[in-house]
């Protein structure tokens, strides 16, 4: 058994001259809930397609549950549950029909588990898929993904397009479903407020490149914004771990990684501001600082 559910090294995918994923290094431990963050077009879905063996990388290596998606695609699919933003299902089928159809592909399919999810998610087995609401269709997709008892659950922006109330309800469904022991969850999204409720660690990707990866609590403890106020126009600030600066009149806002009081002391000593203020950042603000930094 590998200690990592997902492991990539230098993973790269090009479409023509464009690098959709550029040298991506990830290590996601078994049993973790991991958030994969990025703006639309950042390379999240392309990465997931390589994890599932749907497309091949141009270079680099990828392991999913210890296997190579290019060689072991079928074996991986039997152990991975997948829910996508635009999940495709046969609209003419009834709920019970698509569950029977899907069960034929998975030796580990648990019919009693599937029935339990249907009851929990209030899915009528006799309703045709085309007559389900968007939220109900996503609950059905989650039921299909979980009823094969996967070791790894991959969620690719599953709440995209849902209204806020339905999105919250669906997230509660996910929280309930992922509490089973040993399951790893890879949650790709750009709605950060959802992620903090379920994930312990994250990676931020932008334009195909990894910007940062780590535990959410650690990032919130070490990524800080410092407002420095000067008598006149602020000087250009240089400090180790600098993400970016924003000047506003006599103030300059400095965002840095690996913040320490020692760093703050060096800033004060070197630039001699009139005053300073240290501010903690929300996950949304941390995301913004990393994707806007160069």
Outline the structure in words.
- The chain is an alpha/beta fold and 294 residues long.
- It has two domains: 157 residues, Rossmann fold (3-Layer(aba) Sandwich); 70 residues, Alpha-Beta Plaits (2-Layer Sandwich).
- Helices cover 31% and strands 30% of the residues.
- The protein has ten helices and 13 strands.
- Strand 11 and strand 12 form a beta hairpin.
- The longest helix is centred in the middle third of the chain and has 14 residues.
- The chain is elongated, with a radius of gyration of 22 Å.
- The protein starts with a strand and ends with a helix.
- The model has no long low-confidence stretch (mean pLDDT 89).
The portion of residues assigned to helices is: 25-40%
Number of helices: 10
SSE arrangement, N to C: EEEHEHEHHHEHEHEEHEEEHEH
Give the strand order of the largest sheet, numbering strands 1, 2, ... along the chain. 5-6-7-3-8-9
User: Roughly how many Å apart are the termini?
Assistant: 39 Å
Summed up, the domain count is 2
From the 3D structure, determine the CATH topology of the largest domain.
Rossmann fold
Describe the SSE topology.
Elements: E1 4-15, E2 18-29, E3 33-37, H1 44-51, E4 59-64, H2 73-77, E5 80-84, H3 95-103, H4 111-120, H5 134-146, E6 152-156, H6 164-177, E7 184-189, H7 192-195, E8 201-206, E9 209-215, H8 216-222, E10 224-229, E11 242-248, E12 251-256, H9 261-271, E13 275-280, H10 283-292
Parallel strand pairs: 3-7, 3-8, 5-6, 6-7
Antiparallel strand pairs: 1-2, 1-4, 8-9, 10-12, 10-13, 11-12
